[in-house]
């Protein structure tokens, strides 16, 4: 792909993401994440209805009448996009691959953050940390983020969420909003990684987006096919004309998804599912609404 083709694709994705980032999405994003705290702004004379707990007794004593402290929310936050770019992400049986869907969702989140004057950074990982862009503001920065998510060529093929989370916790000491976007296909029931996710969520505000493709849960009846694990290279031949084989395949996929859902719920972690053949904005809006109601 030529540089001109890359620029064209990035711009096309920018236009689509800006179209999707409506006022409702931006407002929902704003209301679902708290700022870092409250900053003192000024003192003013007490007015009926003011909270008596905000009275500044020192100033009131000097002025011989009540004054209150006025605070404003320190709104500016940092958003980190933690994106799995392992080999399984190139799979796609519909219009978008999982990596392309990850790039679109990341773009929507990045532009929502930009409209709230938040900084945006990105960490791309496989079984190692592949690429880190420190948080910044500005359109040029966001376009660079989109370009790298789409076209960065990783060295690794496997997946290590643990490595990525540990690196994140080292480079981001202050509380940060983190969206972790992955297919999470490598997570077995009972894995300690769910504990690592919960631990990261104690230091940051972690939300996971689980990508999937429809062919990962259902098989079409097309006879003998060979499936290859993109990360390990392992190959297996399957007879899709066998009804019990298709049923077993679907059952295992449903079991894997249910185990993931149960573990995330058990650890109290926020997450949504994003399948490449379905709209993801309703799930994203619902997530923001749930978080806003908790706040």
Walkthrough of the structure:
The structure is a single chain. Strand 3, helix 4 and strand 4 (119-125) form a beta-alpha-beta unit. With 295 residues, the chain is an alpha/beta fold. The mean pLDDT is 87. It has 2 domains: 3-32 and 78-294, von Willebrand factor, type A domain (Rossmann fold, 3-Layer(aba) Sandwich); 38-74, no CATH class. A 6-stranded mixed beta sheet has the order 5-4-3-6-7-10, with helices on both faces. The chain is built from 9 helices and 10 strands.
Task: Write out key terms for the chains shown.
single chain, 295 residues, alpha/beta, Rossmann fold, 2 domains, two-stranded antiparallel ribbon, 10 strands, 43% helix, elongated
Question: What is this structure, in a nutshell?
Answer:
This protein is α/β, with parallel strands linked by helices.
The first-to-last residue Cα distance is: 46 Å
Main sheet, how many strands, which sense, barrel? 6 strands, mixed
Full CATH superfamily name of the largest domain: von Willebrand factor, type A domain
Per the CATH scheme, the topology name of the largest domain is Rossmann fold
Total domain modules = 2
Structural class: alpha/beta
Strand/helix succession = HHEHEEHEEHHEHEEEHEH
- Residue-averaged pLDDT: 87
In the CATH classification, which architecture of the largest domain applies? 3-Layer(aba) Sandwich
Looking at the chains present, what oligomeric state does this protein adopt? single chain
Spatial order of the strands forming the largest sheet:
5-4-3-6-7-10
The global form is elongated
Q: Beta fraction of the residues?
A: 15-25%
CATH class of the largest domain: Alpha Beta
Alpha plus pi helix count: 9
Poorly predicted runs of 5 or more residues: none
User: How many strand units?
Assistant: 10
Rounded to an integer in angstroms, the radius of gyration calculated over CA atoms is 23 Å
* Helix fraction bin: 40-55%
């Amino acid at each position: 792909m030529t540089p001109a083709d890359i620029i064209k694709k990035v711009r096309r994705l920018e236009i689509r993401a800006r179209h999707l980032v409506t006022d409702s999405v931006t407002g929902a994003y704003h209301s679902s994440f708290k700022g870092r705290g409250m900053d003192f702004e000024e003192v003013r004379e007490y007015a009926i209805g003011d909270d008596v707990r905000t009275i500044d007794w020192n100033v009131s004593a000097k002025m011989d009448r009540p004054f209150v402290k006025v605070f404003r929310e320190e709104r500016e936050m940092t958003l980190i996009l933690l994106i799995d770019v392992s080999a399984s992400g190139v799979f796609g049986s519909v219009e978008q691959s999982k990596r392309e869907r990850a790039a679109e969702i990341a773009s929507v989140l990045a532009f929502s953050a930009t409209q709230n004057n938040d900084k945006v950074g990105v960490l791309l990982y496989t079984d190692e940390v592949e690429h880190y862009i420190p948080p910044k503001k500005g359109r040029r920065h966001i376009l660079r983020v989109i370009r790298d998510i789409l076209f960065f060529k990783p060295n690794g093929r496997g997946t290590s969420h643990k490595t990525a989370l540990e690196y994140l916790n080292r480079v981001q000491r202050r509380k940060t909003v983190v969206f972790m976007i992955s297919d999470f296909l490598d997570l077995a029931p009972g894995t300690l990684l769910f504990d690592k996710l919960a631990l990261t969520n104690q230091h940051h505000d972690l939300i996971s987006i689980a990508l999937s493709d429809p062919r990962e849960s259902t098989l079409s009846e097309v006879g003998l096919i060979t499936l290859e694990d993109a990360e390990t290279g392992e190959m297996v031949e399957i007879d899709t004309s066998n009804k019990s084989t298709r049923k077993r395949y679907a059952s295992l996929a449903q079991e894997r998804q249910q185990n993931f859902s149960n573990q995330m719920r058990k650890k109290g972690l926020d997450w949504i599912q994003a399948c490449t053949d379905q709209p993801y904005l309703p799930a994203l809006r619902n997530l923001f609404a749930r978080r806003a109601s908790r706040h």
